[in-house]
Design a protein that fits this description.
Layout: E1 2-5, H1 10-20, E2 25-28, E3 46-49, H2 57-65, E4 70-73, H3 83-88, E5 92-94, H4 103-118, E6 121-122, E7 135-137, E8 144-146
Helix pairs in contact: 1-4
Protein name: D-isomer specific 2-hydroxyacid dehydrogenase catalytic domain-containing protein
Domain D-isomer specific 2-hydroxyacid dehydrogenase catalytic: 19-109
Keywords: NAD
Length: 148
Amino acid sequence: MKAVAYNIKDFEKELLALANGKVHDLTLISNPLNGNTLHYASGKEVVIVSHDDTLSADILEQLKAAGIQKIVTRSLTTDHIDLYRAADLNIQVANTPYADRTPKGVAEQTIRNLNLWDSGRCVGTACCCVKDCKVTPLNTEGNEKYTG
């Protein structure tokens, strides 16, 4: 998947690169996501943000116009994202809810979400969509396949 990650701190760069293992085309930006930096999302499928990035209805509409289909927040909470507008725009949203809150753990969770989406699977407990999804079990390890 082609993704751009905003608000990346120096210590996160290597961790994301290692977790990614050159699977996804990642662009890492140290600037926050806003109207002035939104152009970096052009041509990407996924935007990766931090809790410091505010994704209002206006920003989400601009992201959708730029081709963004999915958003991963490197945070546990999603209060900085207008989830209802994202749902209206059919933008999927995931967070990083797992117990390992270390920078390495968050980087691995972020890439795990990309991997699952890339293979057509649901991100499970990381899903923050406000719509009901139809999923069917894919295997016994809890991975599910999105069916529409």
